[in-house]
Specification:
437 residues; alpha/beta; 5-stranded parallel beta sheet; 12 helices; binds flavin-adenine dinucleotide
């Protein structure tokens, strides 16, 4: 009987465990997580903070669901893997043997190096425990300062606002999430935030956090302004958790390096999800993502390979349908502005691919809060951002993911932006019908 051990009970780990069970009814499956909360929806934390979801609804599985699948789960923190003896070493001294191991330890929030960063009151929307702690603290806070760009920064801003806290949102420059959104999109989001009562501070950087008896009391900005606050929310990005992989001698770069079969540099050791840097054979490069559905599909491929099927990972164009300041937004494929920072950074709910700037013509239109931006290559749509009206979300996803030749409507897309929507829709309907036959 094969013993499969899965380190990490997030989207990647649990999907791998379910896949293994489907294909190996007899094997022993053990899933271990450092968090007492076990398996929960990490993106759902934002909705929990904003009171749109109760805590219970974040747990997709009950204890019985795991028992029924014969998946053993427990809490422990792994520190190293002995790849020679096939053993995992835990913080409490325990050792666990494996035949096949999946490392799915996810990523963790980056802590900026700032005086006072360790004070009580500096919060992150990163785990169940941190979110619960933030909710408790929000009861006694009148003001919060949030720094960062990307989805989680906005979720922190809006979640704290929903908890009755006055939020000051600090932006380093004069736009929001400039790696991915263009100026118009950023403006739409920021206008909406201001309308909701959030105070947006442009060109404002945190210099230090001032505390009293270990607790946040005030902040100081780089241009010398002071502001009283009890909470400082940080969402400047995440980094794959590489401590265990490094201590175990695995090949790592920005994430744990895996080939298209999710194999690491050590035999019988696989990695998937936010912790991994995965080889994409189509793009011929290693890519880091922080997306739930990508973590799931990598977990599934890892599971299949762990049971002995030789199944390569084929990466669909990364997509996220999210909410930015209440505006439903879909981001697909390569949409980057070219404003990439010196050091590679990724935020939760983001793909490295979005940051890439394609060789493309930008075709765009916007009507009030509805905005459509299409990145058009020679013959193909390489990426798109849709805000508000989502009727083109599925068509654009299909056209980008399937690399469809759109030469037939190229002129309309380039020359008549008001007619872009109907042209894409009509073309996609036609393509779908041909595809169905
Ligand atoms: C607030 C928020 C909003 C998000 N929004 C979106 C979104 O809109 N769209 C989207 O696609 N994605 C979103 N994401 C990202 C998404 O949640 C992640 O991409 C996904 O959870 C990654 O899954 P994973 O299994 O790789 O890692 P994780 O879900 O991070 O799971 C890692 C697991 O490893 C465990 N672990 C860590 N260290 C150890 C150790 N040493 N020993 C044992 N276990 C350990 C953890 O306890 C955890 O169980 C969001 C995330 C957050 C936090």
């Amino acid at each position: 009987m094969t013993r499969y051990v899965v380190l990490g009970m997030g989207a990647a780990g649990i999907t791998a465990a379910e896949t293994i069970r489907r294909h190996d009814p007899q094997g022993e499956i053990v899933c271990i997580s450092a968090e007492p909360a076990g398996y929960y929806s990490r993106p759902g934390l934002a909705y929990y903070l904003s009171k749109e979801l109760g805590e219970k609804s974040l747990y997709p599985f009950t204890k019985k669901d795991f028992q029924w699948r014969k998946i053993i789960t427990y809490q422990n923190t792994a520190v190293r893997v002995d790849t020679e003896t096939h053993e995992i070493l835990f913080q409490n001294g325990k050792r666990v043997r494996y035949d096949r191991l999946l490392i799915a330890l996810g990523a963790q929030a980056i802590k900026p190096e700032l005086p006072g960063i360790h004070y009580d009151g500096v919060v992150y929307l990163d785990s169940m425990a941190q979110t619960q702690q933030m909710i408790r603290k929000a009861r006694f806070a009148r003001t919060a300062v949030v720094i960062g760009g990307g989805i989680t920064a906005l979720e922190l801003v809006e979640g704290l606002q929903a908890r009755g806290v006055n939020v000051h949102f600090f932006l380093r420059g004069d736009t929001y999430w400039n790696r991915v959104l263009d100026r118009t999109e950023s403006k739409i989001v920021l206008n909406r935030l201001k309308h909701e009562g959030v105070r947006v501070h442009f060109n404002t950087e945190l210099d230090q956090i001032i505390g009293k008896r270990g607790k946040v009391r005030e902040i100081l900005t780089k241009d010398g302004r002071r502001m009283k606050t009890r909470l400082v929310g940080i969402a400047i990005g995440v980094r794959p958790r590489l401590g265990l992989a490094k201590a175990s001698g695995l090949d790592v770069n920005r994430g744990i390096k895996v080939n298209e079969f999710m194999e690491t540099s050590a035999p019988d050791v696989y990695a998937a999800g936010d912790v991994a840097e995965v080889f994409d054979p189509d793009a011929k490069q290693y890519i880091v993502d922080s997306l739930w559905h990508i973590a799931r599909s990598q977990g599934m491929v890892a599971g299949l390979n762990m049971v002995g099927q030789r199944k390569p990972y084929r990466r669909r164009s990364p997509l996220n349908v999210t909410r930015l300041a209440g505006i439903t937004t879909t981001i697909i494929g390569k949409v980057g502005s070219g404003e990439v920072e010196d050091e590679f950074t990724i935020v939760r709910g983001e793909s490295e691919t979005w940051q890439q700037t394609p060789d493309a013509v930008v075709c765009q239109n916007n009507f009030e809060i509805n905005r459509l931006r299409v990145m058009l290559g020679d013959r193909r749509i390489l990426g798109a951002v849709l805000m508000g009206d989502q009727s083109l979300s599925q068509p654009l996803e299909d056209l980008v993911a399937n690399n469809v030749d759109v030469s037939e409507i190229r002129n309309v897309l380039v020359q008549n932006h008001d007619a872009m929507g109907p042209a894409i829709l009509g073309f996609w309907n036609q393509w779908r019908q041909q595809h169905a036959n």
